[in-house]
Amino acid sequence: MANKKSFLQGALILGVAGLIIKVLGAVFRIPLANIIGDDGMGYYQTAYPIYVLFLTLSTAGIPTAISKMVAERNAIDNPKEAHRIFRVSFLLLFGIGIVSSAILFFGADLIVEHLKNPGAKHAMMAIAPALLFVPLMAAYRGYFQGMQKMEPTAASQVVEQLFRVVAGLSLALAMVPKGLEHAAAGASFGATAGAIGGLLAVVAIYYGNRKKIHRDMRRDTHKGGEAASKILMNIFIIAVPITIGAAIMPIMNTIDVGIVMRRLQEANFTEKAANSLYGQLTGMAGPLINFPQVLTQAIAMSLVPAVAAAHRKNDTPFLHYNIAMGLRTAMIIGLPCAFGLMILSEPIMLLLYPAQKASAVSAAPCLFVLAIGVVFLSSVQTTTGILQGIGKQMVPVMNLFVGAIVKVILTYTLTGIESINVKGAAIGTVAAYIVASGLNVLAVKKYTGVRFNVMMTWIKPLISALVMAELVWLTHLASADFMGNALSTLLSVMVGACVYTAMLFLTKSITKEELSMIHGGSKLSRITGKFNKK
What we know:
By secondary structure, the chain is an all-alpha fold. 86% of the residues lie in helices and 0% in strands. It has 21 helices and no strands. The longest helix has 58 residues, at 2-59.
């Protein structure tokens, strides 16, 4: 029961923390889109996915490897070797950072020419230095996580986001008179400023703990240690599969950069019009999908240790319980988010981008399509965590790769149709999630033998989400004329949240036992018991 409780509790904590970071991100993205418009966002979003791809390749797996190796050494009271792993990995990440930042900075001209968006050159050069500082910050985070100290990571993430928001928005605003290309570059430099701020924060924490770290190392009686080459080899053995998996999503986003601009221009759109449409898709509609993604990613992260523990102990009932509960929780979160974003796609865009009304209306269909994918993305993330927990790390990688191939084909075909245009890229993304989700679910059933309760996992949450969607639509329809779009949209969201929560209890989609596993759940369990008696 303790393990079951820790799964939901951990998911709740990670979800709340992730939302805080995403709110800070929205504080950056939404005003930025209003400042520089879809043209500026097109330049920014051409540089940013390339940066994320480089960042993923350089930092996705190595901090996890550091954390694992440091934790193993500390478990056998060998802090001296743990610190040595940190030093070796720091030098490795420093080298990777220099190479990746230099490639992006000095190759910016060539990259943007190839992507058919030369106006993004300054934005790409401005964001390149972040590729040096983020890997260094990741080395410190991995070391502290290995010592089971999560506060340094959390603190540096918050500082990083704050620096990014303040510097990025300030520079974008200051650079607007010089042109949107320079304004986009100012916004991109926010990532560099954030990386510097986050690094300074975690280094300060490290030096604050330095005396204790050195005191522990002096007490270490172990002699000798692994060769640096062996440490590096072990890092790569752990990091490479994780990096491959983490790189799939940035690669999918990079596919959009490489294909969409070309195909839109081939479909009789000018370079400026193509850039604006691309900015609407990736800079205005796309970021909204990240909010539900944070919650389901928290579920996936919490599932990995719970599933791994049950798998190692051959505790099949507990393994199946965690798998079924994890996927059901993902559906309970993903379905209302999807329906809500679909029903309110245009009102939400107008609420968030009041200074860019024409672009907001134009971007709404993209949001509608992408919202469909939220359900399947929730499934992909959760089942990926399950498969990683049972030691099948490469299975979800291959499944997402198959989905990416589908995305390439659909994006290329549909984006070139003038009437569909940029919505074709959104359709391709959703198709990729559908394919990967289906393959992952089949793989989970194959390798674990689990049987999902269709009624509890899909039907009941779907019924609850459909009732919610109908009332949300009616609320906005009835109130928009006299309340205005902003207040009507906010009211509709609140009505949707209340209705969906009530429907979950009325349909018994959530049990009292499950409620009791989270903080404060016992009180909720007693309250909701009244619903179930009626």
